[in-house]
Amino acid sequence: MILNRDWLLVTLAWGPEYYAAALKLRASAERFGLATRIVQVPGFPPSRREAWRLRGRMILDALEKDGGPVLMVDADALVERDPRPYLELARRADLGAFEFSPELWWACTLAARKTAGAIRCLERWQELMDTDDWDMDSILLGRAIQETRPAVARLSSALAWWEPAMGDRFGHVVPVIRQLGIGAKGLVA
User: Fold this and answer.
1) How many whole angstroms separate alpha carbon 117 and alpha carbon 170?
2) Pairing of β 77-79 and β 177-179
3) Using one digit for the tens of pLDDT, what is the confidence trace for 42-89?
4) Could you say which residues of the chain have pLDDT below 50?
5) CB neighbour class for 88 (10 Å; exposed up to 12, middle 13-18, buried from 19)
6) Residue 178: what pLDDT?
């Protein structure tokens, strides 16, 4: 299959469960011709938070190496429909994200272009993740966006669908990228 390099999908994998999930994510993305890079973390971080701290750096590294645009997706997700039509707004912005509630940007799916605004925001997000041991990654992403003021395209919840958090609130949405989660038996639908 010829992979389309208009968006590079990047994901972070640690431990065997997340690596297996990342391989399923790659296979689901390749059905739509999306190139995917899995960034493996050696060993197993002591917590998910420790792994999440690597997201900003992973996106910055991909922008530096590949020039962008980059779509970061959690490894425990599947691409169910072609995301490119939903990413068109992000082509005209520094970042693209789903705003779950005012100033709370969902950090499991994030689109970035190689612009000064995106780089400034991602670097600030990385700094906040490295120094704040309390707040959730999505809260810190919101803080980085507030502080650095990049142009952010408000993306559809369909790109970051997670049933437990969104089913009641956005039940009419047909997912494009579905967050699954990993339980004791692997991926959980």
Assistant:
1) 30
2) antiparallel
3) 777 777 677 778 889 999 999 999 887 999 998 888 999 999 888 888
4) 1-3, 184
5) exposed
6) 78
Considering only the C-alpha atoms of the chain, give the largest distance between any 2 of them, rounded to a whole number of Å.
Answer: 43
How many residues are recorded in the chain? 189
Q: Which helix (H) or strand (E) holds 13?
A: strand 4-14
Which of 136, 2, 133, 137 is CA-nearest to residue 57? 137
Cα 118 to Cα 18: distance, rounded to the nearest angstrom: 27
pTM of the model: 0.86
Closest C-alpha among 154, 146, 23, 29 to residue 84: 29
- Confidence (pLDDT) at 88: 86
For the chain, domains (ranges, CATH) are 4-187 (3.90.550.10)
**CA atoms within a 13 Å half-sphere pointing along the CA-CB vector of 86:** 24
CA-closest candidate to residue 86, choices 148, 34, 144, 138: 34
Alpha helices in 67-134 (DSSP H): 84-87, 116-131
Q: Residue 136: its pLDDT value, please?
A: 81
